[in-house]
Amino acid sequence: MSALRQSQSRSGRPLPERTLSELLLVADWHWFVSETLGLLAIVMLVRPLLPDGLAGDGTLPHPFWIAVLLMSAQYGVMGGLFAALSASTAYLLDGLPAQSAMQDFYGYAGVVAVQPCAWCATALVLGGLRTLHIHSQTTLEDQLDQTSLTADALADALQSALREIDRLEQRIATDTTTSASLLDSLAKLDISDRRTLLTRMAEVIRWGVGATDFMICLGGLRGEKPYLVSKDGVTVEDTKLIETTMASPIAEEPASASLAVPIRQNASARSLGTVICQRLSPKQVPGIAGQRLTAVSCLLASLLPVCPDFTAEAPNDDAPRSTAVS
Asked: Which residue positions in the chain have pLDDT lower than 70?
């Protein structure tokens, strides 16, 4: 019974309430019944071979005391009482002492009743002490099992907290590095011409938004056309190279993961183009990335009109180039 409860506690399942048979210590009846009957059978087989004094006919204790004492000390009051009753039955059937001619019925009945009464008294006293010990041990085992379950739950919670702390530390370190890189990119912004501005803004989008694959499209007379494409840190600004890059898939994520934000200062202003983010870094949250991309688009909408060579038409630069941005 104890081994079963310990296995249940280690598996994380709640411990069941003890049944009435367990509380009365009769759940192990098949053990003390078989052991008691076996001991009494052995004593009855060996008793005829013993001398009169050892066989219980003299002043020495009766051999049936072995079963009563062992069962009382092992299984408590229920096992002791069963052993006492079984020993009394065997004693009345086969072990009665001879009646003296000087004894009347009451005197002989008193002699016969001494042993069964002593066995029952011993079973009640010794078995009662053993029963109290068993109940105390069971209570302590239940408390230990509950404490073990609580300790396991606390250990799991501590492990989760440590993982969360580690994740936050990595995120803080990443954000710190990202902030430093973003500030450095903002410090290098140059509005001398449109090409340089968008090249620098590509670094701002990469570090500020956390985008790995994105493109910047500017509006023109024939609609919006891609002006700059960034894929895995490589910024492509030439029209032919842009078409070649767009021919291959930019990201493995589904289209629903893309973020498209118009380049304008506010909702009522005219859109100068669109910034399309097609893949984010694994640690970036899409909602936060969308807010940052909107802020970057507002900044780009404020800086583009200041460029001397900015026009509303799509670019048609003749000087192709491809730069790798670290």
From this structure: 1-26, 50-60, 95, 173-179, 181-182, 184-185, 188, 220-222, 233, 237-257, 309-326
Contact 15, 146 (CB under 8 A): yes
Residue-wise pLDDT for 306-319, tens only, equals 787 666 444 444 43
- Please give the CATH topology (third level) of the domain spanning 188-324: Beta-Lactamase (3.30.450)
- Say if residue 266 is exposed, middle or buried (CB neighbours under 10 Å; 0-12, 13-18, 19+): exposed
At position 147, the amino acid (one-letter code) is T
Specify the amino acid at residue 246: M
**pLDDT tens, position by position, 219-233:** 766 677 787 888 876
Domain ranges of the chain: 2-157, 188-324
155 to 60, 69, 135: CA distances (angstroms):
60, 46, 30
Q: For residue 187, with 0-12 CB atoms within 10 Å meaning exposed, 13-18 middle and 19 or more buried, which class applies?
A: exposed
Model pTM score: 0.45
The answer for residues whose C-beta is within 8 angstroms of residue 273's C-beta and 6 or more apart is 216, 217, 218, 219, 224, 227, 262, 263
The single-letter DSSP state of residue 2 is H
| Residues 6 or more apart whose Cβ sits within 8 Å of residue 197 | 189, 190, 191, 300, 303, 304, 307
**Using an 8 Å Cβ cutoff, are 2 and 52 in contact?**
no
